[in-house]
Amino acid sequence: MRLSRYFLPTLKEDPKEAQIVSHRLMLRAGMIQQASAGIYSWLPLGHRVLKKIEQIVREEQDKAGAIEILMPTIQSADLWRQSNRYDDYGKEMLRIEDRHGREMLYGPTNEELVTDIFRTHVKSYKDLPLNLYHIQWKFRDEVRPRFGVMRGREFLMKDAYSFDMDYEGAKIAYNRMFVAYLKTYARMGLQAIPLRADTGPIGGDLSHEFIILADTGESEVFYHKDILGLKTPEDKDYSPDELQGIVDEWTSYYAAADEMHDADNCPISGDELVSRRGIEVGHIFHFGQKYSAPFEANVTGPDGKDVTVSMGSYGIGVSRLVGGIIEACHDENGIIWPEAVAPFKVGLINLKTGDEACDQACEDFYGKLQSAGVEVLYDDRNERAGGKFANMDLIGLPWQVTIGPRGLKSGVVEFKNRATGEKTELSPEDALQRLVG
Ligand code: ATP
Ligand code: MG
Which ligand is nearest to the CA of 212? Predict the structure, then answer.
């Protein structure tokens, strides 16, 4: 992409409305624009990152055996009356009336709708286990939308729903998602910590929130320092026993959010216990027959008797992750994208647009990267070099290649690693090889 033809409305000044660094940097890097409180348009750069995160989430869900569907954003109130949640949900639910006076709502989550799909079509134990997911916009009329996309009113969520014959089956589905989540966040360059979460009236221990550490996180978390050293699960099909082993290993270390943490009864103390702030980027929850019972989502078992299925739901905050990653990965000059979610892999800077040799060397480099399938943003604008450098640092592409008249004379380009700041002079061929390889 040529910057001269792109739409990248960056800001030089810090926007006043932004209280935290990710919000500030997303506005300054031209990634989003507020449409109304807690509701955002995604501009090209932000949209690319959002899609990358979405795709990583999708691939890991698919690998874990979940099947993608797409349910609507607008739902009928009737379904929510069947689960008794229409009134319970309160003011967070955006309620809408259509022209016939029917009550509708903008979905804050999809348990009702997916259970309705399930009960319509699935009648036999032979069709289980089943896990259906979608990646869809949600609306929750949060009391205090803030921090940009981190706590929006409209936000993109991946939500998966598992259906099993019994608790044992549901637990395998749960463990499979637990492991998929660890892999998902690791691919984005994040280490997420699973925290035991409150299961409310349902009880049991199958509820975890996944948090990433950042000073601006909304909750205080307490954890064993060694949990950060645990290995990410491999990319393979684990047996149910192996899945349980991984979950046990992770959950054997203490980790709890402030509302679950009890300082007097904490099993660890001293320098083993670390306390930091964290951002919730996912939540998995086993809720048994909470929805399948009122919806009569039953299947016939091998013995011919009807069984009410056991369910779980598994959410990932896709749009929140865009902000969350920036909170975890930035410096005083701007964003530092982990390569897997970067909007472009390479930023190419022409130090002297209009200079024949520079233009030609840049065009050549740009063309070669493009034909090798490397995503590159080429700053071909006729601007000051200082402004171009600042802009590239701000938008945080992992690699920067600068081509200028002086370097060209000695046959080199400057190759910079955005994360470490390390700069090397390389021949254009060597620089290409590093980026293509
Ligand atoms: P929170 O405690 O942060 O309000 P929640 O418990 O209401 O979250 P879930 O219903 O578990 O959230 O939703 C799954 C995921 O969706 C969360 O882990 C979070 O990453 C994301 N999410 C929830 N609410 C918002 C929001 N208002 N804006 C952006 N992402 C959100
Ligand atoms: Mg939660």
Answer: 1
